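Bench log, entry 3. Co-assembly request; chain sequences pasted below exactly as received.
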Amino acid sequence: MANVKFFSGNPLPLEMHKTRTVQKLTLLPVEQRRDAMLDAGCNTFLLQNRDVFLDMLTDSGTNAMSDKQVAAMMQADDSYAGSETFVRLQDACTHMFGTKFLLPAHQGRACENILAEAFVSEGSVVPMNFHFTTTKAHITRKGGSVEEILIDEGLNINSTHPFKGDIDMAKLEELVAKVGAENIPFVRIEAGTNLIGGQPVSMENFRAVSAFCRSKGIRFVIDASLLCDNLYFIKTREEACKDMDLVEITRELGCLADIIYFSARKLGCARGGAIVTNNRTMFEAMREFVPLFEGFLTYGGMSVREMEAMAVGLYESLDMDFIMQAPQFIQAFSDELQAKGVPVVTPAGGLGCHVNASAFLPHLDQSQYIAGALAAAVFVASGVRGMERGTMSEQREPDGTERFAEMELLRLALPKRVFSLSQIKYAADRLAWLFENRSLIGGLRYVEEPQIMRFFFGRLEPVGDWMDKLVAAFRRDFGDSL
Ligand SMILES: Cc1ncc(COP(=O)(O)O)c(C=O)c1O
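Structure output for the full assembly:
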């Protein structure tokens, strides 16, 4: 890691790269931002990117690629069978995880579909530190259920615990004793636990869960989509691992898990996905689903160009200069917001800065989609597009009642190497203004509500005329500023 001391003031996160290709941005006037938000059904997923200033929706497929990744795309081998591109990707996965077998799939949820098809059936129970939206949807679609066995501290929004994504071993043992190992197709750990604020999992926990699963004959699966940030935290927060090379860590994970899968829209900074394993039986149980759902085994529904970029991206994910950038920027964003009194999840994790919407808008009821309302308000105030991670992202119970999320978070994702510190400071400034004016923000209600993953396509409307009041307050305080 770059060890750079500053002569004056506090050190800043210092990028170990420079920018050579840029994309022009526009910032619409506040009235147009409000109109765009209303046109989008108050759902940031439905905004047009041309209306967005800083796109902090996600890091999925939006990380900046390196010159070497782009160059590698030119050597892609299009052969349907026996493609050299596949071999290069397989070599990269073997280098990273020490695994023999690779099943390519077009993105993370496609890997989850294959895992669910191969191993989940009616009545299956899948224990995991915390669910991810697509993971849970695939498991429940097959008649299984998800049991979250996160440590209690994981749901404590403001904590000093360095690894809030850890599984609680006592809860795991209790659950296995209750439902029986034979009903558990696999235990899943999600590295860099997305929905609780990108919180990491410790190496100690990976080891403990693996040993327990082996003792019970249960498969152990790691979702490594957010592994990059998690690696940084293992290196910097876990005393016992501080002298391990990154590749030693990833190879140990490859030994601890039976199966690792990931979205390469995140890990590897490309657009794709993969499942890797050393277990021939498990590989064969999953293999048939790749040509059925994805494409031939050598490309799994991905463009070979993306596979080349992904292979290089995986090697680059073992470079501390690269992996430190995003968590350090997220820390800086989080510190800036906290200094201005804006409530955020602590400690800062990976993926993005997570604003605690419940503390931001204590006057709103959860039935009015607190985090969704905050996401809409932030866009109106700043042109920054975040993502609701709260009740809107939950699915209703089978009887139609609302399932309230454990946390109402607004995620402001920082795709790797994309935003500058001044852009982060701008976003923090507008959020601070919004926090001062938080009493103006009202709730949302659904006007169109899909049954599955409603947060993607659902349309909502503001309860009352709060958006107009927000626009008027903006004009009062900022004059003719954008
Ligand atoms: C932890 C985790 N698992 C799985 C997925 C699904 O990956 P994809 O979006 O590539 O389908 C995501 C995507 O955000 C994720 O964060």
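The two ends are 38 Å apart (CA to CA). Residues 74 and 305 are 7 Å apart (CA to CA).
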